[in-house]
Here is the input.
Amino acid sequence: MSDGDDGTLKAALPPLAQARLQSLRLADGVATLVLDVAGLDRLERDRMEIAVKDALRGQEGVSEVRVAMTADKPQRRLIAVGSGKGGVGKSTLSANLAVALAKMGRKVGLVDADIYGPSQPRLLANEGVKPTARDKKLVPVPSPWGVPVLSMGHIIEPGQAIAWRGPMAGNALSQLVDADWGDTELLVVDLPPGTGDVQLTMLQRFKPVGAVIVSTPQDLALMDATRAISLFEQSEVPIIGMVENMAGYACPHCGEVSDPFGQGGAEAAAKSMGHAFLGRIPLDLSIRQDSDAGNPPAAGEGPQAEAFAAIARRVATWLDNQKR
Ligand SMILES: Nc1ncnc2c1ncn2[C@@H]1O[C@H](COP(=O)(O)OP(=O)(O)O)[C@@H](O)[C@H]1O
Ligand SMILES: [Mg+2]
Here is the structure.
């Protein structure tokens, strides 16, 4: 503040603008403000600019008001999908959660952080497509459902063994996250199973806004899930909630649902740990078949698509409540 009274001018601003004020300067009658507009749409930004100008124009010593807005490049938020062990359906959930969110109109991309066992190129039907590069950054590979994807599977030859040590794996992962994601607002990150280096790098470097934990109803898988939860909690990544996968078996012949692994275990576990339960996906042969064929069930219609959509709605609501 070169002249004028900073406090008085600030107090004259509408409360919303005060909360987003990064700097305010008055010099030669020109008030210059920088506002952080992350998360606001165009209409909200325009309204705020008008309100700010109206509020300051009448103030003593102000003949002109200039408003600059930061965060014009979209704030990208990451949500991590984790599990303590492999084979519980983490990749299946990540792909279908992303597709279901895209169906809801969200600008969502997918990072396959399982760099030792990438599966997203197959799940999202862009296997064998090589990402291009722009300004030294990878450009994500499109998929038929409007979900751009980056996976180590897009970069290495199929079947080629990856035997990297932690730091290299961490750097590879950075390239996938810090890519040219354009106007993608949300990245679903399919984490590798376990609680090792890659997971830690991910959490520390990229600070996801929240984590979804997948578990099967079995006690053992739940114990593993508990370990994954404590990894996130240690890294101060909030748990969005838990998903129970392979819950109840829908017989392809008679439709009767039986419970080979029991049911409700993840919901009870979530409750006892004070976490939200996001939903349940049945064990269904068609989920595996469609997934393997690069046809994410969430993209279709019917009960399985609805199961993924319900989880996506809960995640979206959680994200929207986080905005402020
Ligand atoms: N709800 C389900 N019903 C049937 N098969 C499933 C279901 N969820 C996952 N699968 C299958 O189980 C296998 C492991 O799933 P995946 O998502 O790759 O697990 P993870 O990423 O946790 O290792 C895959 O063949 C997948 O198609
Ligand atoms: Mg996987």
